[in-house]
Amino acid sequence: MILGCLITIIVFIFVLIIFIFTGTAITFSLMARILIPLLLIWLGIKIIKSFC
Known about the structure:
membrane, transmembrane, mainly alpha, transmembrane helix
């Protein structure tokens, strides 16, 4: 009985850790998708301003 509970708890914690890791990975990829174009636009404006 105790062993079954322990296995269930371990599996639950393992699943939670996987969810946290995938969650952070997804949020980072979303942030990258939003930030990279903004960074490119900002760099483009900076280059144009330096040439003009």
